[in-house]
Design brief:
The structure is a single chain. By secondary structure, this protein is of the alpha/beta class. It folds into two domains: about 5-155, Phosphoglycerate kinase, N-terminal domain (Rossmann fold); about 165-355, Rossmann fold. It has 13 helices and 17 strands. The chain has helices spanning about 35-50, 65-75, 110, 115-125, 140-145, 155-165, 185-200, 205-215, 275-285, 305-315, 325-335, 350-355, 360-365; strands spanning about 15-20, 25, 30, 50-55, 80-85, 100, 130, 155, 175-180, 200-205, 240, 245-250, 255-260, 265-270, 290-295, 320-325, 345. It has a six-stranded parallel sheet. A six-stranded parallel sheet has the order 11-10-9-15-16-17, sandwiched between helices. A three-stranded antiparallel sheet has the order 13-12-14. β10, α8 and β11 (about 240) form a beta-alpha-beta unit. α7 (about 185-200) crosses α12 (about 350-355) and α9 runs parallel beside α10 (about 305-315). The radius of gyration is 22 Å and the shape is elongated. Its EC number is 2.7.2.3.
């Protein structure tokens, strides 16, 4: 892949800049601007060299607007123009402003359908394509994999950094501790299998652990589990670490800490317990490299303690540390300890897919 600093004769060129600005918004205000800040150096670099920018991003949900994100950018670039309707129309006079901001790409179903005519139309706005949207580059969408067919293509600085930093996980220092939380066991099983051979210890937490506990014969009550049976046959038993105690919530709302073999039928696992964090703490002290993605509890419903305690332990450790995933990064931001980690990935699903396969559809489209 070629990065933006290798674009010839940038001045005056129209550049289609694909960003990932799918950030949390509440009451019309941006709650977390982590991904936006990651993209700003590439935007600033291109603007400082006289490029004309067409900025495009998706926002989860075809009926949602990027308006609040536009206002964020307009505070930095007052000359920026917003274009609400651009397919099958063009960007019109807004293109003369020098920096154009397109409304949510997913407003058009052609984006997710990877419609080549849609991609060709987007390409008609510009002379160069730049992908600075690593977090969505695991999606086979028009602006990610078809648009680059029609223009000279480059990646942004943050995109290149993601690939470089995450690739460290393939040849890491040892001992290597891999920590995986969150849900969707069926999609993360390939990753668990891959890193059970690369890592010295693999800790599975969050809702993923429910599947493993159930496979080992424990009752998990009403906890979230996947539709498939957890197959552990390919994973060395000595490497795999699962919670020994958990925080549970009963149907009447009572919250308590229990050993994993005492979960009642009317209870749901909502977080990892203190003894589990203590075991993890010892592994963290011994590790030279730590890779972590996904929360240990039901983070969005306020069960944050396990995740935050884990974040603090890793932040205090001397190990090289790479962390990713939306809720994981949010917990680190809340604690204001981001500078204590070697690298914070902006990717959630993209990070996991890259780690599992060594590539992404968006990477292949740029090569």
């Amino acid at each position: 892949m070629k990065t933006v600093d290798s674009i010839p004769d940038v001045s005056g060129k129209k550049i289609f800049l694909r960003l990932d600005l799918n950030v949390p918004v509440s009451g019309g205000r941006i709650v977390d601007d982590f991904r936006i800040k990651r993209a700003l150096p590439t935007v600033a670099f291109l603007k400082s060299r006289g490029a004309q920018l067409i900025i495009a991003s998706h926002f989860e949900g075809e009926n949602k607007t990027l308006g609040p994100v536009f206002e964020y950018f307009k505070n930095i670039y007052p000359e920026m123009a917003f274009v609400n309707d651009y397919f099958p129309n063009n960007i019109g006079e807004a293109g003369s402003s020098g920096i154009v901001f397109l409304e949510n790409l997913r407003k058009y179903p052609e984006e997710k359908l990877n419609d080549e005519n849609f991609a060709r139309h987007l390409a008609s706005f510009a002379e160069v394509y730049v992908n600075e949207a690593f977090p969505v580059s695991h999606r086979r969408h028009a602006s990610i994999i078809s648009l680059p067919k029609f223009l000279p293509k480059f990646c942004g600085f943050a995109f290149a950094q993601e690939v470089e930093k995450l690739s460290y996980a393939f040849t890491p220092d040892k001992p290597f501790l891999f920590i995986l939380g969150g849900a969707k066991f069926e999609t993360k099983l390939p990753l668990i299998k891959k890193f059970s051979s690369l890592a010295d210890s693999v800790f599975i937490g969050g809702a993923l652990a429910n599947d493993l506990l159930k496979a080992r014969g424990n009752s998990v009550g009403k906890s979230l589990v996947s539709d498939i049976k957890a197959d552990l046959s390919e994973i060395p038993e000595g490497k795999l670490i699962v919670p020994v105690d958990v925080v549970v919530k009963s149907e009447n709302g009572e919250v308590s800490v229990k050993p994993v073999n005492e979960i009642a039928e009317d209870e749901s696992v909502v977080d990892s317990g203190p003894k589990t964090i203590e075991i993890l703490g010892q592994k963290i002290k011994e590790a030279r490299f730590i890779l972590w993605n996904g929360p240990l509890g039901n983070y969005e419903f306020g069960f944050k303690k396990g995740t935050e305690d884990l974040a603090k332990l890793i932040a205090q450790a001397p190990a090289h540390s790479i962390v990713g995933g939306g809720d994981t990064i949010a917990s680190i931001a809340e604690l204001d300890i981001g500078d204590k980690f070697s690298f914070l990935s902006s990717g959630g699903g993209a990070m996991l897919e890259f780690l599992a396969t060594g590539t992404l559809p968006g990477i292949e489209a740029l090569e």
